[in-house]
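User: Sequence recovery, please. Input:
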């Protein structure tokens, strides 16, 4: 029988997990496994993986009474349980919430053998958002994390494949997995199978806490808990096909002013419209051909790293810290979009994130001269005035998001 690892003493910090913890040698992973075949890594994750998420933590989340469908779903005998079977209406601050989860009903279904699925946990649990950001940064795709809690001896879902790449991380209990190689033609769809259709699996393994599986998209798989309640994470990476990347590049290129004209293409169109259309296609193709492939892929990768589900920030903390700003506190320009107008009688109009403000011309000139990330003391933001007055100006600009503490990010 599997013996759980001893939990670390309370008060110790959660491990900082890395992409290498999941895949091992990155070069080997991308050369031999990524988008090709399923991969197993035993005892891959260091420390106590219950620090990532635990059954105890899910009890706490359930009783907060704020987790609602579709963030939580229940599956029994291969079919979804209707939400009305485990929700009720409650009044919160005068507003009627019609689908509040009832913990007792969830527990009742779980005792009866249902799997409880926690969807998009990276939108609920900050630690999981940090954990999955590690993957988004490497893979440059949208990443979501789903938790599956399965009762002892139960199979949550029939054999199937999903239109996403998956990292499976076992957190508590054990679960037996069967994996088959993805089909030769992968359509990026969902599909279910019978055991007879699939034949012998290429991987059959009992996952224990800390073990990791990688499944390329459309990899058929099936899993069942054995002699303990099982909790595992499925970290879903949504593939960006060539058609998706090309569409994003096309939209960027087609945003050029020459494509903003409004032609009439109906039955009464002018005979010149067809030749103009051909000219536009030729121009578009020329613009696409002139792209620097490396730079464009870098741009697309950066877009992938900042898709919904992985953002972070500390604006509340930054604003609070400005109240105690001192003249020698180091600040720096943020990445906020700033447009500078002309000097009008010693005042310069600035547009910051769509908001217009007028600042002393010296302040605007100082900001314009700063590179993003370059540090500057708060007492020097407004040249030629006492440090205390400069610091007041710096406080205002920090609250607007133009400046931030140099130790932020």
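Assistant: Recovered sequence (409 residues):
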């Amino acid at each position: 029988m599997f013996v759980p690892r001893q939990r670390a003493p309370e008060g110790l910090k959660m491990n900082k997990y890395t992409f290498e913890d999941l895949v091992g040698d990155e070069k080997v992973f991308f050369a031999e496994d990524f988008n090709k075949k399923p991969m197993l890594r035993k005892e891959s994750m260091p420390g106590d993986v219950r620090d990532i998420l635990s059954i105890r933590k899910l009890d706490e989340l359930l009783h907060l009474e704020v987790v609602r469908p579709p963030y939580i779903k229940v599956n029994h005998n291969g079919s979804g349980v209707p939400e009305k079977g485990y929700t009720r209406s409650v009044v919160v601050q005068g507003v009627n919430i019609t689908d509040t989860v009832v913990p007792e009903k969830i527990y009742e279904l779980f005792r009866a053998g249902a799997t409880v699925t926690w969807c998009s946990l990276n939108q609920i649990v900050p630690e999981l958002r940090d954990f999955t950001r590690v993957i988004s940064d490497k893979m440059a795709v949208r990443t979501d994390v789903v938790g599956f809690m399965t009762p002892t001896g139960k199979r949550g879902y029939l054999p199937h494949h999903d239109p996403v790449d998956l990292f499976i991380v076992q957190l508590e209990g054990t679960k037996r997995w069967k994996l088959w190689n993805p089909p030769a033609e992968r359509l990026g769809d969902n599909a279910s199978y019978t055991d007879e259709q699939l034949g012998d699996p290429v991987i059959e393994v009992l996952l224990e806490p800390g073990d990791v599986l990688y499944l390329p998209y459309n990899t058929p798989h099936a899993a069942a808990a054995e002699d303990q309640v099982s909790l595992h994470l499925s970290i879903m990476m949504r593939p960006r096909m060539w058609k998706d990347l090309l569409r994003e590049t096309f939209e960027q290129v087609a945003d050029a002013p020459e494509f903003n004209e409004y032609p009439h293409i109906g039955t009464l169109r002018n005979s010149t419209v067809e030749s103009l259309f051909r000219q536009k296609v030729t121009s578009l193709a020329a613009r696409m051909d002139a792209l620097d492939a490396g730079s464009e892929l870098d741009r697309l990768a950066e877009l992938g790293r900042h898709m919904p589900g992985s953002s972070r920030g500390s604006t509340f903390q930054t604003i609070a810290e400005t109240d105690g700003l001192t003249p020698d506190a180091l600040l720096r320009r943020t990445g906020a979009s700033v447009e500078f107008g002309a000097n009008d009688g010693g005042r310069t109009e600035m547009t910051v994130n769509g908001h217009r403000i007028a600042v002393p011309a010296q302040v605007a000139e100082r900001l314009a001269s700063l590179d993003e990330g370059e540090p500057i003391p708060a007492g020097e933001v407004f040249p030629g005035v006492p440090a205390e007055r400069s610091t007041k100006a710096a406080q205002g600009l920090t609250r607007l998001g133009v400046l931030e503490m140099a130790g932020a990010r």
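The CA atoms of residues 396 and 406 lie 16 Å apart.
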